[in-house]
Amino acid sequence: MFSTKGRYALRVLTDIAEQNKNDYVPLKDIAKRQCISKKYLESIVKKLVDANLLTGISGKNGGYKLVKAPSKYSIGEILAATEGSIAPVACISNGSAICDRKNSCKSLPLWIELNDLISKFLYKKKLSDII
Question: Long-range pairs for 22-29 at CB < 8 Å and ≥24 separation?
């Protein structure tokens, strides 16, 4: 299950994409339109900036804008930037410890197949598909 961080990240990027693409969009305006706490959004946009999905400036005309066109953002990369792993189970998540049942786990192929389906779907879908 995806957390509010991932879901709100999609809302933030969608909101920004729908604004004037040449202007930085103030976070307070996004928070108001999306009915999300500005303080909570600050932690989300930090992850998006760190993942090079947004760029931001501070000051009077500050805010955030997309780094690339909405059609160049995959939903998978947005969720991975905010959620970490999007794997359905921890044992196949990138960076997880190797499970000592890996060689005898009868359900592992199921989880690997599900992970492949989810990843292909989310990385195929673009931010522009939401807009």
Answer: 23/61, 23/63, 23/65, 24/56, 24/57, 24/61, 24/62, 24/63, 24/64, 24/65, 25/63, 25/64, 25/65, 26/62, 26/63, 27/63, 27/64, 29/63
Partners of residue 25 on adjacent β-strands: 64
For residue 69, which of 1, 130, 17 has the smallest C-alpha distance? 17
pLDDT digits (tens, 9 = 90+) for 82-121: 998 899 988 888 776 777 887 889 999 999 999 999 999 9
Are 126 and 100 a contacting pair, CB within 8 Å? no
Burial status of residue 75 (CB atoms within 10 A of its CB: 0-12, 13-18, 19 or more)? buried
pLDDT 10s digits, 21-36: 789 999 999 999 999 9
Q: What is the pTM of this model?
A: 0.90
Instruction: Tell which residue, 75, 74, 55, has the closest CA to residue 64.
Output: 55
